[in-house]
Amino acid sequence: MRDYIKSATELAEQIAPGAAERDMNRQLPFEQMELIRQANLGTARLPVTSGGGDIPFTDVVKIFITLSRADPCVAQALFPHFATVEHLRLIASPSQQDKYFSEITRQKLTSGAIAERGGKIRGEITTQLSLREGRYLLNGTKFYSTGCLFADYIKVQAVTEQGDAVYVMVPKQSPGVTLLDDWDGMGQRTTASGTTRLENVEVPSEWIIPLHHWVNKRNYVGAVAQLIHCSIDAGIGLAALEDAIRWIGKGVRPVKESGVELAAYDPYILRTIGELSAHINAAVAIIDLAARKVDLASRAQLSGNSNESQTDILLTEASIAVAEAKIISTRSSLLVCERVYDIGGASTTQKGLNLDRHWRNARTHTTHDSLDYKYKAVGNYLVNDIPPPISFLY
Length: 394
Description:
It is built from eleven helices and eight strands. It is an alpha+beta fold. The chain folds into three domains: 4-108, Butyryl-Coa Dehydrogenase, subunit A, domain 1, CATH 1.10.540; 113-214, Beta Barrel (Butyryl-CoA Dehydrogenase, subunit A, domain 2); 221-384, Butyryl-CoA Dehydrogenase, subunit A, domain 3 (Up-down Bundle). Strands 1, 2, 3, 4, 5, 6, 7 and 8 form an eight-stranded mixed β-sheet that branches. Strand 2 (128-132) and strand 3 form a beta hairpin. The radius of gyration is 22 Å and the shape is globular. It is found in: Cytoplasm.
């Protein structure tokens, strides 16, 4: 059986060089994403019967931590593909699974155009799938279309004229699809998280995946999405810690009152490194624990071997575990990326080092959803036995 973790490690060695420069110059990682495509890493979660590895989520998080340490923008650009695979496994019809799984085994990548600006609440979808003279037409504008410029298929969330939610698997080159490289966030600069415009995109019925049956049904895909986000944050923190340790031996001078000749023996620098290592590795550990619970829940739901009540308990426990992991991974990655400057002092702020990219990346990526609501969800479950909301955020 193929070792996907080994593949990710080998890819990371090729992706890491130039990551700081790509960030500084906002150079999109087309070459790096092509390496991932050629390695066929996108088959990792496909069923074995469909030519994939069906690897556990404990391996998925290792892959994303590894890639994120090398370049978190590449890791985030790949994330929507893994989320789409899970949606296909859970929701798509057998014929749709056959089609898209076959495409993925031929090195095709998928991405997602979900979020929109505007509306009264976050997550509101106005992109519409309309039936006109026997043809389905897709119209709307998406923002945060992470990774779409690198993908072959774009999973678009829309609503029908009747208000039913759907996913539409749109080939990127379809007439009426316009992808803009207009993401200007301070961090995660090269994720290609720009605008997608959909103007009268003609949609064959086989592209349409009904979603409305799952809107109010608990499932494991939201936990998977959050789990991968946790992994990306942990990878950012680990990369920052590595850079801090490396810089101690290169550019840090001890203060006179430390009584040591080398910064590597300064007790407060050592203390800081120890503290940051403990925090970020605690994040890695809790992510692994959460991944084990997601594995249990996903296997139960995909296999159908557990009754609905038992599966619902596993899904709830997985979502809570991932929420706890999100709390720790967010706090830990931000702590490490901020405290780098306590180790290196003013020298670490040099533009050429671009160490601030770690904090910018962590701060930008951790804004995907409010951490306060994670605390609330965990507390509400433990105190009141109320499960977390059914949403892509849990």
